[in-house]
Design goal:
By secondary structure, the chain is of the alpha+beta class. The protein has ten helices and eight strands. The protein folds into three domains: about 5-125, Sufe protein. Chain: A; about 135-190, BFD-like [2Fe-2S]-binding domain (Arc Repressor Mutant, subunit A, Orthogonal Bundle), CATH 1.10.10.1100; about 195-280, Fe-S cluster assembly (FSCA) (GMP Synthetase, Chain A, domain 3, 2-Layer Sandwich). About 45% of the residues lie in helices and about 20% in strands. The N and C termini lie far apart (about 55 Å). The relative contact order is 0.09.
């Protein structure tokens, strides 16, 4: 049993603004039945351009219903510009908090609201437009893109894969995307792996020092990260500032190998070894 506070339970047991508006000005849908949570939001504008009425239909848990319900109260009377600025943190604060594992419900509410506003601007209430998914799908189990993951990390100051899963469900299915989620976290937050703080980049390196530092960085900073997703990497050769590597395991078959090569391998080597390093994948 989740430890919900009294306010969450009140909105769950006695939700306000439940239902659906006929001929709405804006419609937004988020989530899916396959994922376990789904929200449909509809709103109607008044003559003054402010949200006069708003209703929701939610299939999901107590936190999903409570988040949707309190959000409808929050947006009534606001302009669309004002409503678009509401974040999932605002929803959680209004509820007095949610369990960490249920934060994705507040994110679903925020995204449904944004989708409804986008729908209004695009169609003026003449029909529901499919929400455009920006970015590349990272979590195929729940259809979460890299841009959506970046958004929840940035807006909620997240620093672990488990937190990302709690906020948007990415990584909560088969788990095969957890390594890539960690890469996104590291890229955004500049987070270093354990021991990185002690690995200083010398101002000037001899050839031998450079080779040793490249090997160490691959071994301590890059390989463990790739192995979390079933991949691996081998150092093939070093030609001056050019480092030639070969991906192994799942990385060798991954469609995002180019991203990994530049944004992970090359970025880490430039950070810990030398700014002029260029990484290339071994040609077949």
């Amino acid at each position: 049993m989740w430890d919900y506070n009294k306010k969450v339970m009140e909105y769950f047991l006695h939700p306000v603004n439940a239902g659906e508006i006929e001929n709405p000005d804006g419609v937004g849908e988020e989530g899916s039945l396959a994922c376990g949570d789904m929200l449909k939001l509809t709103f109607k504008l008044g003559k003054d351009g402010r949200i006069a009425d708003v209703k929701f239909k939610t299939f999901g848990c107590a936190s999903a219903i409570a988040s949707s319900s309190v959000m409808t109260e929050m947006v009534k009377g606001l302009t669309l510009e004002e409503a678009s600025k509401i974040t999932n943190k605002d929803i959680v604060d209004k509820l007095g908090g949610l369990p960490e594992q249920k934060m994705h419900c507040s994110v679903m509410g925020m995204e449904a609201l944004q989708a409804a506003i986008a729908n209004y601007h695009k169609s003026k209430g003449k029909g529901v437009q499919t929400k455009k998914i920006e970015g590349k799908i990272v979590c195929t189990c729940f259809g979460v893109t890299d841009k959506e993951i970046e958004k929840v990390i940035t807006e909620n100051n997240l620093d672990s894969v488990e937190q990302v899963t709690n906020y948007c469900k990415a990584g909560g299915g088969c788990g095969s995307c957890r390594g890539e989620i960690q890469m996104i976290i590291d890229k955004i937050r500049g987070k270093k792996e354990k021991g990185a703080e002690t690995q200083a980049k010398p101002k000037k390196l001899t050839n031998l020092q450079k080779i040793q530092l490249i090997q160490r960085t691959i071994s301590e900073q890059i390989r463990p990260l790739l192995k979390t997703d079933g991949g691996d990497i081998d150092l093939i050769d070093i030609e001056g500032s050019k480092v030639i590597v070969a991906f192994r395991g799942m990385c060798s078959k991954c469609p995002t190998a180019e991203f990994t090569l530049k944004d992970v391998v090359e970025a880490r080597l430039r950070e810990f070894v030398s700014n002029d390093i260029v990484v290339e994948e071994q040609s077949e």
